[in-house]
């Protein structure tokens, strides 16, 4: 079983739609959680951290459910520029002091 | 502005060649990392370094070695390149062990023929 699992997509949504991505992690000792964004043929960049209390940054909301070992990312009012691959990332736990990346969920926002 | 640079964007090498991938960061970061990224497998950690002359194996170190002689520079070495090492190689750095945000370089797409 992969340490971090994501639906690869692609998710094709119209501009203005709300879209949600989910991610599960296998190690209950994992300590910190993040979403990174990777544009086509570019490097990954940190999008936001994920907290149990939820974390909102403009149109983006991230949520953590430790009991279910589940992380989510919600994007409201999707823009064409949101088209990218979203990587679920976990830090710590059995993997040690390093980041473990999911394989990513691809989002395509269309006119 | 944060900057991580890698020596080449594209590289083509023959099987058995020794390959050097260079990474430089200008942020005075303590930690540096080498990943490879393959479709369906995501980013996998090869090696990382917490300090000069220090190195730690990641999840897939076999067939690779690293060198960190200066704080700003982290090199990945393929002693004898093989076709299964064809991949996108990404270097990253972070300020300290307790800092989770990693800054990535643009990547080197290596093809081994």
What do you see in this structure?
The complex is a heterodimer of chains A (111) and B (113). Chain A is an all-beta fold and 111 residues long. Chain A has strands at residues 4-6, 11-14, 19-25, 32-38, 44-50, 55-57, 60-65, 70-75, 84-91, 99-101, 105-110. In chain A, a hairpin with a 5-residue loop joins strand 4 (32-38) and strand 5 (44-50). Chain A is globular, with a radius of gyration of 13 Å. In chain B, strands 2, 4, 5, 6, 9, 10 and 11 form a seven-stranded mixed β-sheet that branches. Chain B has a four-stranded antiparallel β-sheet with strand order 1-3-8-7, with no helix packed on it. Chain B is globular and about 40 Å long. Classes of the chains: A mainly beta (111), B mainly beta (113). Chain A binds chain B through residues 8, 32, 34, 42-46, 49, 87, 91, 97-99, 101-104, and chain B through 33, 35, 40-45, 48, 58, 90, 97, 100-102, 104-107.
Question: Can you describe this structure in just a few lines?
Answer:
The complex is a heterodimer of chains A (111) and B (113). By secondary structure, chain A is mostly beta strands. Helix content of chain A is 0%, strand content 54%.
């Amino acid at each position: 079983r992969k340490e971090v699992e994501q639906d690869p997509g692609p998710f094709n949504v119209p501009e203005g739609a709300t879209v949600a991505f989910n991610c599960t992690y296998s190690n209950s000792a994992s300590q910190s959680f993040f979403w990174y964004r990777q544009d086509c043929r570019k490097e990954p960049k940190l999008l936001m951290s994920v907290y149990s209390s939820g974390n909102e940054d403009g149109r983006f909301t991230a949520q953590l459910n430790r009991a279910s070992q589940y992380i989510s990312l919600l994007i409201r009012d999707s823009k064409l520029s949101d088209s990218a691959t979203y990587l679920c990332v976990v830090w710590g736990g059995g993997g040690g002091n390093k980041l473990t990346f999911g394989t990513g969920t691809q989002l395509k926002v269309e006119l | 502005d944060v900057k991580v640079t890698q020596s080449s964007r594209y590289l083509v090498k023959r099987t058995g060649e020794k390959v050097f991938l260079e990474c430089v960061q200008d942020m005075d970061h303590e930690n540096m990392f080498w990943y490879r990224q393959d479709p369906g497998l995501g980013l996998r950690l090869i090696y990382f370094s917490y300090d000069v002359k220090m190195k730690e194996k990641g999840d897939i170190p076999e067939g690779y070695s690293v060198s960190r002689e200066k704080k700003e520079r982290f090199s990945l070495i393929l002693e004898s390149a093989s076709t299964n090492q064809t991949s996108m190689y990404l270097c990253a750095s972070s300020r300290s062990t307790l800092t989770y945000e990693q800054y990535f370089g643009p990547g080197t797409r290596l093809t081994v023929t």
